[in-house]
């Protein structure tokens, strides 16, 4: 009689998998239970930290019960250990999603949960999802691809939001653009990126005044734009004359608006005039420092420049004129007055002191002031485009030489 024995030392034949035995099934179940218990402990810990932080930040309600006063915090639903840690939270009566990030609440809640910042995503009903960000989502830069638009009505890339959305803006849209930032905060690099994308558009003319002679000037040599760019600081009269000519062009265009239309539609023979005013407060200071003409012998140069820019800002939109003004700080007196400042529908602030941020973006920006005062180059606070004010990372083209190369490569040649 032969006895069949099971040889456990021999490996199973190739291609044959033994069904899991009791021990391995038990081990898998135990690992699953331990994993679940670990997750449960983590979720409880996160919930406890969140509730304590809510109490400290007064994102809670005080309820009077028989035993005294008790504190109610927003109910926590699902918790995911991440990364990134996320919690679904039910809003309490009277609470809004923005309450979790208003004032300093966002960073404070996030720090309590071991993160850097907090993002609030609305959910159906009275629930929101809170995402604890491990690091600043704008930390990593993004390079501007070698792209240009064929027309000013196509959007150029302005930047990327914290959610990774790429924001575009067509220069033909009726908005003047204000850009402020301290030295080295990334204003010029942003302008290089913006203008290089527009270099090939035949219905956009990049003109203006640039006392630094870098944004305009050399990069645009031998293109049709160059003759409309004033870069000579020694001849301020040239800047004032040019702005006065622009006002005349604007008046002529306004007089030529076709019947049944309320604005000029840009075309190659009547392009959008993008008037770049680089370091505009510097131009005004230099103009104001010139000797004033005697009474009855003309208008001071500073006043001529101020009044032209004010007119371009307030009347230029219908005449396909867009102003891009750059300044270290948009103080009313430095940029031609509060009325002039109010004309900018699209506003970007690179690193600036907290009071400058509030000056350009209003009180909504106050909470971000201290943090933004130390923002890395290329991180800007943006208002406009029909969106809530938000932080963005603008695209980076590279150093100045790359800007010159791109403009020279894509801009059309001047007719001789
Ligand atoms: N988007 C960006 N991403 C990464 N680095 C950037 C970005 N923008 C600027 N930088 C870096 O910061 C430096 C300073 O930027 P930029 O010259 O544009 O500042 P600025 O605000 O124009 O300063 P200034 O007023 O002195 O001209 C650049 O040389 C570059 O190294």
UniProtKB/TrEMBL annotation:
Sequence positions that bind ATP: 181-188
Protein name, per record: FtsK domain-containing protein
SUPFAM superfamilies: P-loop containing nucleoside triphosphate hydrolases (SSF52540)
Upper classification of the organism: Bacteria, Bacillati, Actinomycetota, Actinomycetes, Pseudonocardiales
Family annotation (Gene3D superfamilies): P-loop containing nucleotide triphosphate hydrolases
Superkingdom of the source species: Bacteria
UniProt keyword annotation of Ribosomal protein present: no
Keywords attached to this entry: ATP-binding, Nucleotide-binding
Keyword set includes Nucleotide-binding: yes
Domain (FtsK): residue spans on this chain: 153-359
Family annotation (PROSITE patterns): FTSK
Organism of origin: Actinomycetospora rhizophila
Annotated InterPro entries: FtsK_dom, P-loop_NTPase
């Amino acid at each position: 009689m032969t006895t069949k024995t099971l040889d456990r030392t021999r490996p199973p034949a190739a291609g044959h998998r033994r069904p899991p035995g009791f021990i391995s099934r038990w081990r898998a179940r135990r690992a699953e239970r331990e994993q679940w218990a670990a997750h449960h402990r983590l979720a409880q810990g996160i919930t406890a930290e969140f509730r304590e932080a809510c109490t400290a930040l007064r994102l809670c309600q005080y309820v009077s019960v028989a035993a005294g006063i008790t504190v109610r915090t927003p109910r926590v639903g699902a918790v995911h250990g991440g990364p990134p840690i996320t919690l679904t939270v039910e809003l309490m009566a009277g609470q809004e999603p923005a309450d979790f990030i208003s004032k300093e609440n966002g960073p404070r809640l996030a720090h309590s949960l071991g993160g850097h910042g907090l993002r609030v995503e609305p959910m159906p009903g009275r629930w929101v999802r809170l995402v604890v960000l491990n690091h600043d989502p704008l930390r990593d830069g993004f390079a501007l691809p070698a792209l240009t638009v064929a027309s000013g009505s196509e959007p150029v890339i302005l930047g990327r939001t914290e959610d990774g959305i790429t924001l575009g803006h067509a220069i033909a849209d009726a908005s003047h653009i204000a850009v402020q930032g301290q030295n080295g905060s990334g204003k010029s690099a942003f302008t290089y990126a913006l203008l290089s994308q527009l270099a090939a558009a035949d219905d956009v003319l990049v003109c203006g005044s640039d006392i630094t002679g870098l944004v305009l000037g050399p990069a645009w040599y031998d293109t049709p734009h160059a003759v409309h760019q004033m870069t000579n600081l020694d001849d301020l009269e040239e800047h004032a004359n040019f702005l006065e000519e622009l006002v005349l062009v604007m008046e002529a265009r306004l007089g030529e608006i076709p019947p049944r239309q309320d604005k000029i539609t840009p075309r190659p023979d009547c392009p959008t005039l993008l008037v770049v005013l680089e370091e505009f407060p510097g131009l005004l200071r230099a103009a104001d420092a010139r000797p004033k003409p005697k009474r009855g012998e003309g208008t001071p140069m500073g006043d001529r420049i101020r009044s032209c820019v004010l007119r371009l800002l307030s009347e230029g939109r219908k005449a396909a004129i867009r102003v891009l003004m750059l300044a270290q700080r948009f103080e009313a007196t430095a940029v031609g007055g509060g009325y002039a400042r109010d004309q900018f529908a699209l506003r970007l602030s690179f690193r600036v002191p907290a009071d400058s941020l509030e000056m350009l973006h209003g009180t909504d920006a106050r909470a971000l002031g201290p943090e933004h005062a130390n923002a890395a180059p290329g991180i800007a606070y943006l208002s406009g485009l029909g969106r809530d004010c938000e932080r963005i990372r603008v695209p980076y083209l590279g150093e100045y030489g790359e800007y010159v190369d791109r403009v020279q490569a894509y801009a059309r040649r001047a007719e001789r």
